[in-house]
C-alpha cells in the first residue's frame, strides 16, 4: 500500500493572504521564494511550497485573484451605471483612499504598486490581470464622463479622455502618498478638491 503524503501544516487560505501582504509590500520581483517560505505559516519547506502552490508565479496569480476580489473592490462603484456618474467617481476615489490607509494590510494599492515595481517584460506579462484592471478602470472613468455629457451634466465641449485622466491620475497618485504615511483625512479632503474638476466642466 502506498504511503500517504504528510498533511500540510499550514492553512492554505491564510497562506495566500500572508503571501498577498508580502507581494503587496515588496512587489513581485523583490519577493523571493525564501521570503515566501519563511512568511507562510511559521515557515514551510520548499517541497511543501511547491506541493501547495506549484510555483511563485502560480501563487502570485492566486494572490492577484484574492486582491481583485477583496481589497480591489474599493473601486467597484466606478462600474455601477445605476449611480449618477459624478457620484460613481467620487465614491471610487473615497473608497480607494480609505482602503489604502486601512490597518491590517500594507498601505497603498497592490495594482498600482505591482505595475510600478515590475522590472521586466516577463514580470509585466505575469502581472497581466493587474494591467487589465487598470485598463478597465480607465475605460470606466471615460464612460462616467461620457454619461455625464449625455445626461447634460457636463458641457458638450468636455473631452472625456482628458477629464477622465484627471481622476485616474489622482487615483494612481493615492498610492505613493498612502505609502508615505499621509493620513486618510488628508486624502479624503483631497478627493473633495479634485471633484471640483467635474464641477468646472458643468454646463
Automatic annotation (TrEMBL):
<feature type="DNA-binding region" description="H-T-H motif">
    <location>
        <begin position="34"/>
        <end position="53"/>
    </location>
</feature>
<dbReference type="InterPro" id="IPR009057">
    <property type="entry name" value="Homeodomain-like_sf"/>
</dbReference>
<dbReference type="InterPro" id="IPR001647">
    <property type="entry name" value="HTH_TetR"/>
</dbReference>
<dbReference type="InterPro" id="IPR036271">
    <property type="entry name" value="Tet_transcr_reg_TetR-rel_C_sf"/>
</dbReference>
<keyword id="KW-0238">DNA-binding</keyword>
<dbReference type="InterPro" id="IPR011075">
    <property type="entry name" value="TetR_C"/>
</dbReference>
<feature type="domain" description="HTH tetR-type">
    <location>
        <begin position="9"/>
        <end position="71"/>
    </location>
</feature>
<protein>
    <submittedName>
        <fullName>TetR/AcrR family transcriptional regulator</fullName>
    </submittedName>
</protein>
<keyword id="KW-0804">Transcription</keyword>
<keyword id="KW-0805">Transcription regulation</keyword>
<dbReference type="Pfam" id="PF00440">
    <property type="entry name" value="TetR_N"/>
</dbReference>
<dbReference type="Pfam" id="PF16925">
    <property type="entry name" value="TetR_C_13"/>
</dbReference>
Amino acid at each position: 500500500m502506498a504511503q500517504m503524503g504528510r498533511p500540510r501544516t499550514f492553512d492554505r487560505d491564510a497562506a495566500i493572504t500572508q503571501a498577498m501582504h508580502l507581494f503587496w509590500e515588496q512587489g513581485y520581483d523583490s519577493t523571493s521564494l525564501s521570503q515566501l517560505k519563511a512568511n507562510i505559516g511559521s515557515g514551510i519547506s520548499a517541497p511543501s511550497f511547491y506541493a501547495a502552490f506549484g510555483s511563485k508565479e502560480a501563487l502570485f496569480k492566486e494572490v492577484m485573484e484574492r486582491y481583485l476580489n477583496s481589497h480591489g473592490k474599493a473601486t467597484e462603484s466606478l462600474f455601477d451605471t445605476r449611480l449618477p456618474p459624478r457620484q460613481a467617481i467620487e465614491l471610487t476615489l473615497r473608497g480607494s483612499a480609505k482602503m489604502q490607509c486601512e490597518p491590517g494590510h500594507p498601505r497603498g494599492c497592490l495594482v498600482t504598486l505591482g505595475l510600478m515595481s515590475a522590472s521586466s517584460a516577463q514580470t509585466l506579462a505575469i502581472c497581466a490581470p493587474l494591467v487589465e484592471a487598470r485598463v478597465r478602470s480607465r475605460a470606466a472613468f471615460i464612460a462616467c464622463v461620457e454619461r455625464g455629457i449625455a445626461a447634460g451634466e457636463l458641457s458638450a465641449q468636455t473631452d472625456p479622455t482628458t477629464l477622465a485622466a484627471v481622476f485616474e491620475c489622482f487615483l494612481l497618485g493615492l498610492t505613493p502618498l498612502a505609502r508615505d504615511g499621509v493620513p486618510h483625512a488628508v486624502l479624503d479632503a483631497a478627493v473633495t478638491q479634485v471633484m471640483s474638476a467635474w464641477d468646472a466642466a458643468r454646463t
